[in-house]
Amino acid sequence: LGAVVDRGTRRIVFMASTEGGVEIEKVAEETPEKILKAEIDPLVGAQPYQGRELAFKLGLEGKQIGQFAKIFLGLAKLFEECDLALVEINPLVITSEGDLHCLDAKVGVDGNALYRQKKIREMHDPSQEDSREAEAASWELNYVALEGNIGC
């Protein structure tokens, strides 16, 4: 389960798939029908029915549907409140008791919104960035590495 901003529609799009352990890009290329999507209307935000709809399409049953909808709504809230560019839960598993558990997560923050996100900014670790991008950022410049020895 993950979400990104679709630049074409300017909306948050949630994607879900039962194809665990596989790169989502590979699934999208080879079997796009296995990726389920829910587009979030910015005027009303994520709605519980969208989470339930994804849960049904994923084949979840009973209490799992409510659990999935709760996770979906929580991720949508996190995405919007923290100015994320990406949020992904992988894997999202079903325990032997039939409950959903998020085992790992990945988030990507919109760098242009860090000025609004003091707590996230304080966690920033420049050692995880490309050294050239970090140097440019220290001078409040944007740097995009290109092939060869040029940048823009």
Structure in words:
By secondary structure, the protein is an alpha+beta fold. The chain has two domains: 2-111, ATP-grasp fold, B domain (D-amino Acid Aminotransferase, Chain A, domain 1); 117-152, no CATH class. Helix content is 34%, strand content 22%. It is built from five helices and seven strands. Strands 3-2-1-4-7 form a five-stranded antiparallel sheet, covered by helices on one side. Strand 1 and strand 2 form a beta hairpin. Helix 2 crosses helix 3. The longest helix is centred in the middle third of the chain and has 19 residues, at 63-81. The protein is globular and about 55 Å long. The mean pLDDT is 90.
Q: Keywords for this structure?
A:
single chain, alpha+beta, D-amino Acid Aminotransferase, Chain A, domain 1, 5-stranded antiparallel beta sheet, two-stranded antiparallel sheet, 7 strands
Give the arrangement of secondary structure elements.
Blueprint: E1 2-6, E2 11-16, H1 24-30, E3 36-40, H2 48-58, H3 63-81, E4 84-89, E5 92-94, E6 100-102, E7 105-109, H4 118-123, H5 131-138
Antiparallel strand pairs: 1-2, 1-4, 2-3, 4-7, 5-6
Helix pairs in contact: 2-3
Order of strands across the widest beta sheet? 3-2-1-4-7
State the distance separating the first and last CA atoms.
Answer: 34 Å
Number of helices: 5
Strand content: 15-25%
**Rg (CA only):** 18 Å
Q: Give the helix/strand class.
A: alpha+beta
CATH topology of the largest domain: D-amino Acid Aminotransferase, Chain A, domain 1
- The CATH first-level class of the largest domain comes to Alpha Beta
Biggest sheet architecture: 5 strands, antiparallel
Task: Output mean pLDDT.
Answer: 90
What's the CATH architecture name of the largest domain? 2-Layer Sandwich
